[in-house]
Amino acid sequence: MKQVFGVFGDPIGHSLSxxxxxxxxxxxxxxxxxxxxxxxxxxxxxxILGAEAMGFGGLNLTVPLxxxxxxxxxxxxxxxxxxxxxxxxxxxxxxxxxRGYNTDGLGAKQALQDVAVEIKGSKIVLAGAGGAARAIxxxxxxxxxxxxxxxxTEERAIELAKDISAAALPGKVEGKGLSGLKDLLENASxxxxxxxxxxxxxxxxxxATAEELHPGLTVxxxxxxxxxxxLLREAKxxxxxxxxxxxxxxxxxxxxxxxxxxxxxxxxxxKKTVLEALQA
Length: 280
Ligand code: ATR
Fold this sequence. Notes:
There is one protein chain. With 280 residues, this protein is of the alpha/beta class. Helices cover 39% and strands 19% of the residues. The protein contains ten helices and twelve strands. The protein has helices at 17-27, 44-53, 79-84, 104-114, 131-142, 154-166, 181-186, 230-238, 245-261, 267-279; strands at 3-9, 32-38, 58-61, 76-77, 89-92, 98-101, 123-127, 146-150, 173-176, 190-193, 218-221, 241-243. A six-stranded mixed sheet has the order 2-1-3-5-6-4, sandwiched between helices. A six-stranded parallel sheet has the order 9-8-7-10-11-12, sandwiched between helices. 2'-monophosphoadenosine-5'-diphosphate (ATR) binds next to helix 5.
């Protein structure tokens, strides 16, 4: 009998995860299927326990369920997910235990490593202070990056920086508002955008202009709809290296796949599948 995997979220109709994981299962000849389920936050606990009872192989959680999962008594989070305060991957253990992980930060780290960014000791400007910023900042601080979090609402950036500093990770973190970006970037080697600027339908906005960027920067936009955001176009015009948000999506999924199956997924095929779905 096929083993079922799934992603829970609301809305969930546009999720690319089913296409990505089903392509991987099929290429590996695994008798598994991955499906998207619309689940409301108040029913999350019942849905997860139901999936466990029915022998699901594993789950992903997406908006708005990642934070809600940690409030459920039934999930045992790993230390990184607990610090981040959000779970995007659920693993069902042999003896009925339900473990929660967060692979978003790891996905971002691997996307940066793809373009040979050395995380340890690097100076990173991270724009945004929402859930995605939180996952990425905790991961990169754990890996020894020096991070300046900048956010429209400065207090949120300061708050997030405080939370990370309290975890006593190797990397130093500071929070600021959006002003003086050009000067901040002069001393940085990486800019990561986790804000919704540039995301469909507001495709003509960007956190920085070419004039504020420089050729020594790697600019990573986690927005992947559209595939080439305004920020990535500005980055190219300035001579900076660019990293697409598609990579983070694929790498967080690949890490979830490893956690569920212990098998190395066909990452290049997953990338191709996601790109085709986005271009369709
Ligand atoms: P997620 O959890 O997906 O990261 P979120 O919590 O909604 O998303 O966060 C969105 C981020 O985009 C926030 O950092 C938000 O800034 P505020 O904290 O000031 O709201 C940022 N953002 C959204 N619209 C923006 C805009 N027009 N200009 C600058 N930043 C914006």
